[in-house]
């Protein structure tokens, strides 16, 4: 019992660490998003600023420049002295000077910088005004935009302060040649760029403020979680200290739970125990060893209590990842049994019953005599039962064929001596014909309904659609929108290109349907018809182009129908089929 309390203490620490890590990651995510959003805001401001500047410049250019009174601020531009009538004198209004678009933009950018801290100017590699000389970053960016003719965005430091910098290329137009033709520019040339630098500090200050509020809220949630973990841990220790008295009863209670989860597992356990004892007897083991292997066989799959139902009860072959998860049951079995004094002597036997004689098994890849001999016997018995039992995806083999397969793997997966003993001990075993892994009783069939994926297309299947329609109006679903998607000419496509090609199209199209919205439920109802359910009504026509891309070059066409579940009181497949 002390070990169990110690285990709970360790578990509490692990959960606390995981909780701390989870909340820390969430806080880090929010902080990252806030500062990332600050960059987006700065970029947006830079783009808007340049658009505003260029709008004013375009206005000035459309008027051939603007004449303004000569003042201390608006002195004649010495760089426009080559333009005739740069300055004009009027008797009534005084002296005026020409402000070309660049001069206007320069004045405006100067004012904007004074008011808001934004830096901006027109810059070029061929300067008219030396004050507009590009800095190091702008020089590099000008080289880039000459090649790409695309704007440049980047954060960098100016005088020790961080700015979001934006360089927008200026394309030479006919109106520009009035002032810039002497520099050698032609219409269409990149003659420089508008450079804008947005100070980042105000955006960072705002991001910091938001982050601080969010971190405080997360910390509050974190402390509540820690309280619950401590409370739960103490309650768990109280339960262990007051209620768990009898180890053996505890273990067999777990076995009973496993048997109730899957009738095949229960029958399998008893059969493996029977076959193991028969083999061990043939090999001359004494009664103590026969008792040990019987108890080990009865408990060898106890670790499957930790295996999710979605894997343990899966009515088909396991994926690589699922197989990796189910392999963990031997470790769990060992850990459970090793904590109980009366089972310590068989814990290692159970732990290694999936090791192979040639070292290709798990969990440790032991080989030959490294594997406990009782584990090796159980390995043979386990394989024999698997071969002589009907599986969902594989019919059972006869006893003779199963023994032949044991011989085929003798010296590889199995110990040769044990295979020889099994050949004699199991030769006349009568395998009950009703032994099967396939769902037969109502309870087993209900468990198999967990697996709702259409294996061909990857969409949900008709059974799941029926379930959702029946239980639609609850907090989990509450779906209102039905979109029916028809594929036309699909049969013709199958005839012309074969079913394999058609299957690939179905899978690709189902994936395209699934990608049009996170809240969608996509079903394959018939061979080439699909149903999309959503809580909110949406226009599926808006996604026609992306859906048709999945059918490109197939001559298969689409059509849609839309229904309101509530309005039409659709509660099952029959109701739906009447609408179709």
Description:
By secondary structure, this protein is an alpha+beta fold. The chain folds into three domains: 2-65 and 100-204, Beta-Lactamase (2-Layer Sandwich); 262-425, Hypothetical protein af1432 (Orthogonal Bundle), CATH 1.10.3210; 452-579, Reverse transcriptase/Diguanylate cyclase domain (Alpha-Beta Plaits, 2-Layer Sandwich). It is built from 22 helices and eleven strands. It has helices at residues 2-62, 101-116, 136-148, 177-180, 201-243, 247-261, 263-282, 287-299, 309-312, 320-327, 329-338, 344-351, 373-387, 399-408, 416-425, 442-448, 462-470, 490-497, 499-514, 544-549, 565-568, 573-579, and strands spanning 66-69, 87-90, 94-99, 119-123, 152-158, 161-171, 190-199, 481-488, 521-524, 529-534, 557-564. The chain has a four-stranded antiparallel β-sheet, sandwiched between helices. Strands 9-10-8-11 form a four-stranded antiparallel β-sheet, sandwiched between helices. A three-stranded antiparallel β-sheet has the order 1-3-2. The chain starts with a helix and ends with a helix. The relative contact order is 0.06.
Structure summary:
The chain is an alpha+beta fold and 580 residues long. Helix content is 53%, strand content 13%.
């Amino acid at each position: 019992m002390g070990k169990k309390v110690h285990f709970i203490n360790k578990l509490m620490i692990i959960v606390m660490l995981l909780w701390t890590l989870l909340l820390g990651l969430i806080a880090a995510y929010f902080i990252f998003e806030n500062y990332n959003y600050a960059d987006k805001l700065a970029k947006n401001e830079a783009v808007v600023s340049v658009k505003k500047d260029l709008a004013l410049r375009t206005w000035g250019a459309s008027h051939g420049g603007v004449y303004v009174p000569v003042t201390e601020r608006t002195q004649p531009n010495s760089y426009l002295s080559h333009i005739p009538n740069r300055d004009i004198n009027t008797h009534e209004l005084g002296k005026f000077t020409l402000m070309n678009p660049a001069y206007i933009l320069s004045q405006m950018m100067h004012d904007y910088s004074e008011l808001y801290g934004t830096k901006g100017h027109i810059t070029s590699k061929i300067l008219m005004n030396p004050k507009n000389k590009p800095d190091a970053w702008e020089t590099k960016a000008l080289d880039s935009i000459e090649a790409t003719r695309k704007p440049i965005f980047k954060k960098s430091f100016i005088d020790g302060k961080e700015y979001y910098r934006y360089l927008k290329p200026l394309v030479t137009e006919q109106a520009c040649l009035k002032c810039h033709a002497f520099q050698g520019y032609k219409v269409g040339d990149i003659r420089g760029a508008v450079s804008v630098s947005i100070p980042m500090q105000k955006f960072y200050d705002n991001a910091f403020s938001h982050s601080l509020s969010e971190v405080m809220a997360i910390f509050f949630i974190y402390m509540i979680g820690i309280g619950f973990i401590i409370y739960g841990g103490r309650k768990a220790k109280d339960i262990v200290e007051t209620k768990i008295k009898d180890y053996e009863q505890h273990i067999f209670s777990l076995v009973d739970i496993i048997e109730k989860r899957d009738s095949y597992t229960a029958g399998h356990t008893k059969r493996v125990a029977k076959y193991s004892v028969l083999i061990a007897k043939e090999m001359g083991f004494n009664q103590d060893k026969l008792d040990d292997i019987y108890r080990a066989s009865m408990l060898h799959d106890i670790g499957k209590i930790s295996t999710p139902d979605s894997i343990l009860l899966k009515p088909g072959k396991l994926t690589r990842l699922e197989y990796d998860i189910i392999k963990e049951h031997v470790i769990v079995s060992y850990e459970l049994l090793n904590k109980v004094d009366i089972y310590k002597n068989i814990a290692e036997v159970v732990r290694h019953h999936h090791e192979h004689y040639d070292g290709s098994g798990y969990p440790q890849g032991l080989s030959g005599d490294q594997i406990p001999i009782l584990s090796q016997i159980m390995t043979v018995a386990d394989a024999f039962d698997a071969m002589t039992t009907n599986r969902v995806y594989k019919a059972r083999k006869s006893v003779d064929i199963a023994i032949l397969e044991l011989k085929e793997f003798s010296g590889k997966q199995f110990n040769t001596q044990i295979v020889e003993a099994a050949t004699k001990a199991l030769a006349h075993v009568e395998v009950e014909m009703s032994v099967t892994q396939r769902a037969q009783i109502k309870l087993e069939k209900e468990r198999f309904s967990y697996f709702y994926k259409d294996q061909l297309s990857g969409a949900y299947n008709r059974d799941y659609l029926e379930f959702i329609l029946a239980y639609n109006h609850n907090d989990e679903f509450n779906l209102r929108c039905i979109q029916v998607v028809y594929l036309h000419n699909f049969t013709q496509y199958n005839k012309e290109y074969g079913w394999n090609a058609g299957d690939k199209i179905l899978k690709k199209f189902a994936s395209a349907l699934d990608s049009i919205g996170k809240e969608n439920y996509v079903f394959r109802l018939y061979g080439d018809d699909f149903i999309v359910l959503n809580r909110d009504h949406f226009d599926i026509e808006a996604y026609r182009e992306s859906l048709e891309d999945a059918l490109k070059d197939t001559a298969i066409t689409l059509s849609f129908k839309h229904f309101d579940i509530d309005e039409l009181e659709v509660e099952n497949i029959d109701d739906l089929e009447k609408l179709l």
